[in-house]
Amino acid sequence: MALSAAPPALADTAGDVSWAMRPAADGAPDKRSWIELDLDPGAQVEEEAAVSNLSTQTVTFAITAADGYFTDTGRFSMLPSSEESVEAGTWIDAPETVTVEAGATAIVPFTVTVPEDAEPGDHAAGIAASITSVGSEAGGAAVGVESRVGFRVMTRVSGDVSPGVAVEDVRSEYRLSWNPLRPGSVTVDAEVVNTGNVRLLLDGTVSAQGATAALIPEDASAQELLPGDRRAVSVVLDDVWPLFSVPVDFTVSPTVVTPSEEQIEIAPVSESSSVTAIPVPQLLALLGIALILFALFAGRIRSRRRIERLVREAKEEGLREGARTGA
Question: Which of 54, 49, 51, 61 is closest to 18 using CA atoms?
């Protein structure tokens, strides 16, 4: 299943059916990637979705809505049809099917109704157009395969907005470079938890011994957390020297995602820890140098003693020779 997007999400099936679905307004597709709503409890709003049939045959699509969620990689998805929605997915009322001619686009109206007892904050759902094709399991049995394309419907229910974030289970591991002239690296793992009732866009830094890395790399997709979500993150810091104990600072600086231009502040949260980093290569190098110096020093001592012994023996031999001559 694909959800989100500009350009519109597309799906291809074994039956050469392809289609796209995106938000619409006034009977035509618009520029929104998904729908953001800001509603009071009990409010109802009319929305539209555009379903485009990009194939060469007339297709009847099933229209479904379900609770939305973010995957571990930060990609938005919605519950499969086999799982029952209990949250914002149940707020959407749409036609069960829509039939679209080849190359045409149909506008599907739907309503979003917020329950009177809905809790304030963000609620995620998705709406999708789908078809079911026939596939086969490993044993050869026929099985229905549902393919869906859609977009997210995010609803902010008015009331007390309470953003919050926590950092849990911070773990650090130091990896040595066996070249004593090169530093090693620190891998920091942690879980970031959205403890509030609104969506958060993750950002932050991890630092150790002057080395700093972004919590979310620049080339990575944006990482959003719904209320109650937790996301495992892992950051590698290079160029960290092993100094027996290395302090590590883990800072999360999230941004509250809002459906309007309203700015909601949330303070950064930091966790500090330390990781054991025994400088084994450096200690071995120092031990090697010490052994070399000891060997050189011991060799000089042995050489000096040998010379002293030879001189002493020469003197004694000279004395004996003189005694024999005098006799």
Answer: 54
Closest CA relative to residue 65, chosen from 109, 126, 5:
126
Domain spans of the chain? 2-157, 165-278, 280-327
Structural fold of domain 2-157: Immunoglobulin-like (2.60.40)
CA–CA separation, 82 and 171 (whole Å): 37
DSSP state of 159: S
Chain centroid to CA 242: how far? 27
What secondary structure letter does DSSP report for 222?
Answer: P
Mode of pairing for the β-strands spanning 35-39 and 18-25? unpaired
Helix, strand or coil for residue 88?
helix
Q: What is the pTM of this model?
A: 0.79
Indicate if 165-278 has the same CATH topology as 2-157. yes
Cβ contacts of 55 within 8 Å, gap of 6 or more: 16, 17, 18, 19, 102
Convert the pLDDT of each residue in 205-262 to its tens digit. 999 998 999 999 888 888 999 999 999 999 999 999 999 999 999 999 999 998 777 7
Superfamily of domain 165-278: Immunoglobulins (2.60.40.10)
**CA R_g for the chain:** 35
Sequence-distant (≥ 6) Cβ neighbours of residue 213 within 8 angstroms: 205, 206, 207, 235, 236, 237
| Mean of pLDDT values over 161-179 | 94
Across the beta sheet with 230-240, the strand order is 165-175, 184-194, 230-240
CA–CA distance, 121 with 123 (Å, rounded to integer): 7
